[in-house]
Amino acid sequence: MSKGKFYITTAIAYTSRKPHIGNSYEIVMTDAIARYKRLQGYDVFFQTGTDEHGQKIEEIAKAAGITPKEHVDKVSSEIKSICDLLNTTYDKFIRTTDPQHEKVVQKIFKKLYEQGDIYKSHYEGLYCTPCESFWTESQLVDGKCPDCGREVKPAKEEAYFFKLSKYQKQLEKYIEENENFIYPESRKKEMINNFIKPGLQDLCVSRTSFKWGIPVDFDEGHIVYVWIDALSNYITGIGYDPDGSSEQYKKYWPADVHIVGKDIVRFHTIYWPIMLMALGEPLPKQVFGHPWLLFGEDKMSKSRGNVIYADDLVELFGVDAVRYYLLSEMPYTSDGSITYETIIERYNSDLANTLGNLVNRTVAMSNKYFDGAIMPSNAKEDVDDDLINTALSTVEKVDKLFAEYRISDAIEAVMNLAKRCNKYIDETMPWALAKDEDKRDRLGTVLYNLLESIRFVAVLISPFMPDTANSILKQINTDVDSYDSLSSFGGLKSGNKVGEAKPLFARIDAKEMFAKIEEKQKAQKAEAEKDDKKEEKTEGIAQIGIEDFAKVELKVAEIKDCEPIKRAKKLLKLTLDDGSGTPRIVASGIAKWYKPEDLIGHKVIVVSNLKPAVLCGVESNGMILAADCAEDDVQVIFVDSMTNGAKIR
């Protein structure tokens, strides 16, 4: 019988590039919570997905020579495959390019506009393209984006704004009356003191400077900005519609918890609840902001060669070992750390020695001493009580820790039970009992207590390491794997036979493993330079030093002649007078926007020291400057008042 519904979500992943292992922590953590709730008997709905619109994606796609949709299809597929690789049990993988999502977002925007919560104005500020955020001068840190530390640039455009200020007091009241809405407490204090108390500013919710987004259907040229688009996924994915929501939405909303990174708590605890207030919908019960997973003490960077991907780790260590490390190594409020050294160390000490060795030798002893038969527990001694009490109390501890999303502490509690089992083996010494025929019943009881405690371990680790849990249950040959079966000690049936003892985790030879890792790191560093060049194209303006700029020679040149180039629909052949006395031939891809007669006689700026290139049989010696003024609109920069050969500095 179901204990009720439980709706849990991750933040949707941005489709700029393949996510590294730090990004993958969130989906594994959320999956562990979802699995645990299902184990307890809840009707769980678990949603994740991808955020696929925005200027950054438009620029990345343009630099790659593909459409934005082609780009997000590829990256979304990579993200989904990583979720599957890590054995996560999401019920819905939403994409913000899903037609139903886009349709409902347009309805939401229109509803908020028609009821006066969205208004049209102009925005002028400092814009960070990667974060898709506007900032004031006072919000910058060392003159750069306070979120990502990158350069910002001035921007001004017509935009729609959402009246956050209208709902400030209502939000403050909700947070006050729902003390666990923002969790943990440190995130709550940060939101109240740094963002809410200083006063909420109205939020820019449309853009006109790029096209890759959901159109505002009543105002051509505007697209719905990320906040309303991406945040709405939590309700559009389960069937919300302003014109009438689905039964699924009515069943699962409000969400029980949104699991998000600490860097986006602000959007989920200020923008999102106010949107829901304006829509007249219930607010999520809780937003949990988790810390980051760092490489050592640093953020992951391709140029440093320290980026770790989930698929690489799985190839080296296996799915459950990766899940275990991610979940056990992340502290509750402070950032976690990942290094290959610590992965190998934890693998050998926790998984191979503590857990794997416990299961292997217990099953092996059962086969050796009783031909695999599980004996009844009828020769108890006082030493048994502590093991039994530890097993029962571990269930209570794990339940309490999961309720607070202290996932690393919960997994530690389960591993402590495994350690207690190993201590129990040392205390009871089954190998010594086996030498005395009069101690046979006692030996059977000791092994029963060990097998039953291992069953507790298997059931409790199933949210963390599901395949390992199944393997353990198979080795001890039981199907008694429900959460309710842990309410008392003794669920394992005597008379059954255990299975074959098989190692769960073989010890890793650190030297051999580091040789494999070094090969991967070399390949990663080799690609870093290429990737960094691609990233420069997507960050708005690529940064160069003054010495690099000084190498570029720009001159004024007059177009003396112009003609189409055969077999090249896009190219025009320009004959230029740049004041040198020798005609300069340049092939330019502007035939779509200009006819030869439109250009002859005008003066342009030419890059005069560009290496020659042969284009469709024409040797081009330079490049003329033009501007992308709008989508599919290129305009050549004319400087008719200047002298031929004048240098541009």
Question: What topology does this entry show?
Answer:
Elements: E1 5-10, E2 13-14, H1 21-40, E3 43-51, H2 55-64, H3 68-85, E4 92-95, H4 99-114, E5 118-128, E6 133-135, E7 153-162, H5 168-177, E8 182-183, H6 185-196, E9 203-204, E10 206-207, E11 214-215, E12 223-224, H7 226-231, H8 233-236, H9 247-252, E13 257-261, H10 265-279, E14 287-290, E15 293-295, H11 310-317, H12 319-329, E16 336-338, H13 340-370, H14 382-403, H15 407-428, H16 430-433, H17 440-461, H18 466-475, H19 510-538, H20 546-550, E17 554-565, E18 568-577, E19 584-588, H21 596-599, E20 603-607, E21 613-615, E22 618-620, E23 623-624, E24 626-630, E25 633-636, E26 647-648
Parallel strand pairs: 1-3, 1-13, 2-3, 3-4, 8-14, 13-14, 15-16
Antiparallel strand pairs: 5-6, 5-7, 7-9, 10-12, 11-12, 17-18, 17-20, 17-26, 18-19, 20-23, 21-22, 24-25
Helix pairs in contact: 2-3, 2-19, 6-10, 11-12, 12-15, 13-15, 13-17, 14-15, 14-17, 15-17, 17-18
The number of distinct β-strands equals: 26
What is the structural class?
A: alpha/beta
Question: Looking at the chains present, what oligomeric state does this protein adopt?
Answer: single chain
Average pLDDT, to the nearest integer?
A: 90
- Estimate the global geometry from the Cα principal axes: elongated
Distance linking N and C termini: 77 Å
Q: State the low-pLDDT regions, or none.
A: 535-542
| Integer-rounded radius of gyration | 31 Å
The tally of helices reads 21
* Largest β-sheet summary: 7 strands, parallel
Helix content: 40-55%
In terms of DSSP E residues, the strand content is 15-25%
